[in-house]
Amino acid sequence: MKTKFMPEETLYKKFLLNNCSFDSAHDLAHIQRVVKSAQTICDEEGGDLDIVKAAAWLHDSVTLPKNHPDRSKSSILAGEKAAAFLNSIDFPETKVKHVVHAIEAHSFSAGIEPTTLEAKIVQDADRLDALGAIGVARCLMVGGKLDRALYQPEDPFCESRDPDDSIYTIDHFYEKLFKLPELMNTESAKEMAVERIRFMKQFLSELQKEI
Fold first, then answer.
1. Residues 6 or more apart from 120 whose CB is under 8 A from it?
2. Model confidence over 78-127: pLDDT tens digits?
3. Which residues of 95-107 are buried (b: 16+ CB within 10 A; e: fewer)?
C-alpha cells in the first residue's frame, strides 16, 4: 500500500521515464533486475528495505557513456538527482542521505567504498547484473556500441597477453568481470556471482570451439 513514506514502484518508474535518459545496457529493464536482486540479497542479509529499494530504483538516474570523460561522476550526479526527487515525495529525511550514499557507492568507476549494509547490497546487486547470461549480453552490447572488436584473433582468451578491453570486448571478461565475485560484499551475492561466472565460462568454452 502506498504511503507518502513508501512510494509505489510506479512512482519510481514515472520519475525515471520522465526525467532520465538511458542507454541499451542501462535501461529500465536493467534497473528492474537490480531492484529484484537487491531485494533478494536484503531478504538474506538484512538491512533497511526502504533504503535498498529507493537506491536500487534510482542508482542509474544519471548515466554517462562508458567512454565519457566524466563517467566516474555519474553516481555522484545520480545521488544528487535522487535526493531532490526523494525530498519532493516526502521520503523520510533521515534515510535520504543513506540512499544517496548507496547510489554514489554502487559505481565501479567512482571508487567509493560502501560503508553501510544497504550500500553494500545495492553495489552487489548492480555488479551481479554484469554477470551471467545477462552480463554476457550487456558486455557484447556495449562493445558493439563502442565499435570494439569482439576478440583478439591471435589470443582471444588472454592466455599469453594482458587483457585490453578498450580494444577487445571479450577482454572485459578477464579485465573486470571474472574478478567481481571476490569483490562482492555479501555472502549471498558471492554465491550468486560464482554461479553466474560458471555460465560465462561455458559461453567462452563454446566460443573457443567455434572460432
1. 114, 185, 186
2. 899 999 999 999 899 999 999 999 999 998 777 889 999 999 999 999 99
3. bbebbbbbbbbbb
- Residue 52 identity (one-letter amino acid): V
Report the alpha-carbon distance of residue 141 to residue 80 in Å, rounded. 28
What the block records as the C-alpha cell of 88 is: 519532493
Please report the DSSP string for 67-117 in residue order.
Answer: T-TTGGGHHHHHHHHHHHHHHHTT--HHHHHHHHHHHHHH-TTTTPPP-SH
Which residue type sits at 149? Answer: A
Residue indicated by cell numbers 526523494: 86
pTM: 0.90
Q: Rounded CA gap, 97 and 111, in Å?
A: 18
Side chain identity at 57, as an amino acid letter? W
Q: Which three cell numbers stand for residue 140?
A: 557484447
Q: Are 38 and 9 in contact (CB under 8 A)?
A: no
Q: Where are the alpha helices (DSSP H) in the chain?
A: 9-19, 28-45, 49-58, 74-88, 93-106, 117-128, 132-145, 171-175, 180-183, 187-210
pLDDT in tens, 154-170: 999 999 999 999 999 99
For residues 188 and 44, is the Cβ–Cβ distance under 8 A? yes
The contacts of residue 160 (CB under 8 Å, 6+ apart) are none
Could you give the CA distance from residue 96 to residue 79 in angstroms, rounded to a whole number?
Answer: 10
